[in-house]
Amino acid sequence: MHPLLVHTRVEVPPRGVQDLTVDDGLVAGRDSLVAAGQALTWRSRFTSGSRTAIPLSATCAVVVAREEPAREDWHDRLIRGLAHRLAGELTIATFCAGGRDVSAPEEAAEDAELLASAIDGLGRLLADLEDTQTPEETADRIVADAVGTHLALVGAVADQQVTVRHGAEFTVHSVRSVSADMTRSDLEEARSRIGLPWPAQAGTSVGEELGLARWCIAMQLRGHQMWCRLEGDDALVTDLWLRHL
Known about the structure:
Blueprint: E1 4-8, E2 20-22, H1 30-42, E3 46-48, E4 51-55, E5 60-64, H2 74-99, H3 105-129, H4 135-154, E6 157-166, E7 170-179, H5 184-192, H6 216-222, E8 225-231, E9 235-243
Antiparallel strand pairs: 1-2, 1-5, 3-4, 4-5, 6-7, 7-9, 8-9
Helix pairs in contact: 2-3
């Protein structure tokens, strides 16, 4: 397969595969369109089936038949940074707790506290990384992060609802948030940041939670999809297409 350029028709990011197109004379399969749409939504390399898409701009992604070497994405740096930091904490804490003179009770207590903190952090990280949750528990966590991401991006909401539709291959969880004071233009800007880490209402600030971005890798490994759209002039809607496992 030759590299294929996929473009958005109008909406950025696309609301679904219907918003995507390729150059005249070319044909794109559904895997190519899904991969491109997800890459543009997450602003990150994304694999769907046998196709991998790499965003070139806000409106265009290149689709290839297999994953090719690419620059390190933000989520790769995030995971590597967490692993290195936690490993360092464990190493230092273990050394301190085991190597200090027991005759210095204040230092020993401080070292033990540091070790306990590092072990607790390791446990929480492993709980997040290991696939120990049932599909239903994982779905609940993804939806909860979608709800939190909406609140971070929209701020004050007049109404927020989660609806569920069951299909043959997917269960679609739709998070709908009606803004209390944002204009449609503001909501479009918020929609464009739905897949970015640490979402915040002001695009130049950093939010308190990682948000939906924590699921970028997990969703592509499980064959899930995430699409975002507006309803009317005041509602932000995120559709989570969670594949049956």
